[in-house]
Amino acid sequence: MSWNNQKFIDFICLQRGFDLTKEQMNDGPYPVVSSTSIIGYHNTYKVKGPGVILGRSGTIGGVQYVEDNFWPHNTTLFVKDFKGNIPKFVYYYMKYFGAERAQGGSAVPTLNRNNLNNIDICIPNRDIQIIVADILSSYDDLIENNQKQIKLLEEAAQRLYKEWFVNLRFPGHENVKIIDGVPEGWEKKCINALGKITTGKTPSTSKTEYYGGEYPFIKIPDMHNCIFPLLTESTLTLQGVNSQKNKTIHKNSIMVSCIATVGLVNIATQDCQTNQQINSLELTDTLNLYYMYFTLKRLKDLLEGVGSNGATMTNVNKEKFGKLAVMLPCKHLIEQFYNFCHPIFTSIYQKSVEEIKLKEARDRLLPKLMSGEIEL
Fold first, then answer.
1. In 3D, which of 264, 267, 268, 275 has the Cα closest to residue 236?
2. Which residues of 236-250 are buried (b: 16+ CB within 10 A; e: fewer)?
């Protein structure tokens, strides 16, 4: 029989992770894995890889896979004993299984491993486990490769930006006078002189007809780890968009997070709206797009300084944001930089779309493989 009915306790054995504060970490090669991500590296490890880790406290049920030796943080559960099962299969199975069903009853969300033990599950034999893990890993390998290429492409454009506009080794720099650190022909301008600034707003959440449409509604969580926010937690209907038309921003607007988490920078790929934590700049001259993208990414420290004013939460309002001054190079340099960056950012966009499609395909396939719907 290729699939076996069993109790969860006969599938794997979970154990709580180990205490380790930031102050106790000694820089080393071993990742310290928390409930959501790697939070640092340590010079010793607690568990030999490969490992599967679940979020236990705070963010619960999330699943991570680590190939090498690691330190599971006390906010996690890790697989202490795979009981003969393939570790990579266990990783994918737990993503399908949804361990958050074992949440405890306390006020703070906690994953109680004892609640899992008597749940009935159906698990294939090792041969099928290997095939399933290989199929799903092939998608993840392509996704990881895309992410690496996106990072390399952005770094190439960023290196040129730094070379030309920070180190001032732009084409023809030998023949340009530098006066008080500023090349001749460059000028300082406030951000509000470069285009229209829009501070977002959240449409009434009591109006259910405003949500669930085709228009992205961008919030700070959507801006992490991307240039183009192609996936958003919320979307708006046309009715929702029209309820605050003056808050719509257009393609190639640059969005900057300016409350709480400041300094995240994204580029809009279509008409959309944002919440009140984001200021957007719709440039008068689109040739400034990539120059201003990298310039605004460098303003994080300045944004935090402008916004703090002794308050516990950073808040850079529209007026403060607009009055920030940036150096604007001469037109021909901006145009050369745009022409260099445009095919790079076009490729990044295409790879970002491809990555989403790969994730969707993998996620559609996952339950079919784990339930035995697809025979192998």
1. 275
2. bbeebbebbeebbbe
